[in-house]
Write a structure and sequence with these properties.
By secondary structure, the protein is an all-alpha fold. The protein folds into two domains: about 45 residues, no CATH class; about 70 residues, AhpD-like (Up-down Bundle), CATH 1.20.1290.10. About 70% of the residues lie in helices and about 0% in strands. The radius of gyration is 19 Å and the shape is globular. GO terms for molecular function: peroxiredoxin activity. It comes from Phormidium nigroviride PCC 7112. This is Carboxymuconolactone decarboxylase.
Length: about 160
Amino acid sequence: MNKQFLTFTVAGLIFMVSPTRSPETVLQPSETMTRQDRGEKVLNSLSGGKGLPPHFVQLQKDFPELADMTLKYSLGDIWAREVLDNKTRQLISLAGFAAQGTMPQFKVHAQYALNYGATPEELMEVIYITTVTSGFPRALIAAGTLKELFQENNIKFPVTSQK
């Protein structure tokens, strides 16, 4: 069986068992807002109601098109979905950033996770899971970044978790 046939067959099966709603229905939260409005609402929530975070304002100055794509797609279409609560979304994102080794984003989103009520113990669990999914080197790098964030937030370190 050739790869192209297999690809089309699998795609067809996925299409056949998928719900019969349009992509707009899936991506739109219950509110009727533009993609940009939803993105700005998410950013305001991430900043704790302080408006656009400074790193995003800088992105708008340096790379306006990238900022626009981030605002409308990443935040307005994806981040604004209502399936996951904000804390869960942050914890999942942290695992992805740790796996990729993208510590600037890891640190920013770890702060957002704390803002949304994640506990230091929950953030530590992300590090422990990273050892399994992405290896000890990535987990160790993320652990160092998390320690910095804890110190900046006056969170007692080391954090001990339930075993």
